[in-house]
Design a protein that fits this description.
Rossmann fold; binds ligand PMT; eight-stranded mixed sheet; alpha/beta; 479 residues; globular; 21 strands; five-stranded parallel sheet
């Protein structure tokens, strides 16, 4: 079905199709085909008002959306058990991995066999355990290569200081180190050793080298050691923690629909100085803009976030630029162009004082308070929307209103010249400013008209994922 035909459908159906296709990670056209197929096969499709409330959390747009672990037979781990007292916990780790339907094959170092037996590891894993590089039965066809390659992940738990040193230096003088050297799969280490050994300069160097070599770590944790009276960092991570960490490597990688796209996002308030100690600002926390940056990054985009002063941690994998005033924010936005998509979620102060005081303004007894003359700040959204050369392909503004939400948002869409407006009610009762939830109305220009999609109340993270899904869909179906 041509996209032209879809655009002519009435708004409720279009809105339903968009939400449903975003939820299922399909294009609108594909979704229509699925609905028709369902209809022909006799499975009912919901209709009417219920359609508008389809939850909008497309798995592809967010790495944070839980994905099912693979089922039996798909996830395969080679577990290398090193020689340390924490080896007894590796038996529990085998159980935790098996609970997750992961196949486990164990390799025990010579030292590990002082703490646990190959028989115990085999009984729990349900598979033969391996101990010897020169085992005639398994090595007749280079078994260490199979152990290294016929798996999705190699876990070393406990990873002793000695094992780490051998790995960092490329030794292969027993089965465990030979498997590790031959590995082409990711390797996850769960170090376990005495705190003094963990903090020793040689171990620090080895750990650093292994990280540079692309080896992953879980733990060690702080806590009491097996040796009486010893405590510190060096305890092996708990089996559940290691299993959860390992499972992440086994999940299918979420698709990256925005890979190769540059996304520019503004967030937070701006602060407009009155004098060196006072400023004009607003109640924006930056949460909504930061959530959008994280969702865009999870969808594979190259994200730059330009934020006013907030108390949030920078989202992982996002280039974050911190500014204070509207004029600084505009400078940085312009400097970061070109971009494919720009999303302006910042609550930029509309005004600043005309004459910023160089010194703290003094209160003088008997005198009236000083008058504050305000001048208008540059409008970042309008400036970028009107660019001739470097205008991003999709420019999205926000509208924060306390009354006549949709009418004011429509007027802003026209006045500022952006493509979409995300309208939200910021009346104090809604808790939108600073809170964790938001209720969105998405306004888009379509064929000279403005369409309005009303979303149910969602967390700001969900709003972000849903907005990114709508962007992905719009890029798939160019106007
Ligand atoms: O930060 P949170 O606590 O999570 O709250 C989120 C939010 C309410 C701040 C966010 O969802 C939101 O609505 N952001 C826009 C706030 C705002 O300033 O809206 P406005 O209606 O005043 O401005 C309209 C648009 O123009 C916005 O995209 C704004 O970024 C932009 N603008 C405004 C003034 C200006 N001088 N330059 C601009 O670019």
């Amino acid at each position: 079905m041509a996209s032209l035909t879809i655009r002519k459908l009435d708004d409720a159906i279009k809105s339903y199709l968009r939400l449903r296709s975003a939820k299922n990670g399909r294009s609108v056209e594909e979704e229509v085909r699925v609905i028709l197929r369902e209809y022909l096969e006799g499975s009912p499709t919901p209709s009417g008002a219920a359609l508008a409330r389809v939850p909008v959390v497309p798995a592809e747009a967010s790495a944070s959306v839980p994905q099912p672990a693979r089922r039996t037979g798909d996830g395969r781990i080679t577990l290398i058990i090193g020689g340390g007292i924490a080896a007894y916990k590796s038996l529990d780790l085998i159980r935790r991995l098996k609970e997750r339907h992961i196949q486990v094959r164990c390799v025990l170092t010579k030292a590990a066999q002082q703490f646990v037996t190959p028989l115990a590891a085999s009984a729990l894993s349900g598979a033969r355990s391996y101990t010897d590089l020169f085992d005639a039965e398994s090595e007749f066809d280079a078994g260490h290569i199979r152990l290294a390659r016929d798996c999705d992940l190699i876990v070393v738990a406990p990873a002793t200081a000695d094992l780490m040193a051998k790995m960092a230096n490329g030794h292969a003088d027993d089965l465990a180190t030979a498997v590790l050297l031959a590995a082409t799969r990711p390797i996850l280490l769960a170090p376990a050793m005495n705190p003094a050994m963990w903090s020793n300069a040689a171990t620090r160097r080895n750990a650093e080298q292994l990280r540079r070599d692309g080896i992953h770590f879980v733990g060690p944790n702080a806590g009491e050691m097996a040796e009486a009276g010893e405590a510190g960092v060096g305890r092996m991570a708990e089996p559940l923690e290691i299993a959860a960490s390992a499972e992440r490597f086994l999940r299918p990688k979420p698709p990256q629909p925005l890979a190769g796209k540059r996304v520019l996002i503004t967030a937070g308030p701006t602060q407009e100085a009155i004098d060196p100690v006072r400023y004009i600002s607003n109640r924006s926390s930056g949460k909504q803009g930061f959530a959008i940056a994280a969702a865009a990054r999870a969808a594979g985009a190259d994200v730059t976030l330009i934020t006013g002063p907030v108390e949030l941690d920078d989202p992982k994998g996002v280039a974050v630029i911190h500014v204070e005033s509207a004029r600084q924010m505009l400078d940085k936005v312009e400097a970061m162009l070109p971009a494919d998509i720009a999303i302006f979620a910042a609550a930029v102060a509309d005004w600043r004082v005309a004459h910023e005081g160089g010194q703290k303004m003094k209160k003088t007894a008997g005198q009236l308070p000083p008058p504050l003359q305000l001048v208008e700040n540059p409008d970042i959204l309008a400036t970028i929307s009107r660019l001739k050369e470097k205008r991003p392909g999709l420019v999205i503004g926000f509208a924060a209103e306390t009354e006549h939400l949709i009418d004011n948002a429509k007027a802003k869409l026209k006045r500022k010249g952006c493509d979409w407006i995300v309208a939200n009610d910021v009346s104090p009762a809604t808790g939108t400013f600073g809170g964790d939830r938001n209720t969105i109305h998405l306004l888009r220009r379509e064929d000279g008209e403005i369409s309005v999609d009303d979303w149910p109340v969602m967390t700001k993270d969900e709003v972000a994922v849903a907005l990114i899904a709508q962007i992905v869909e719009a890029l798939r179906t160019p106007a």
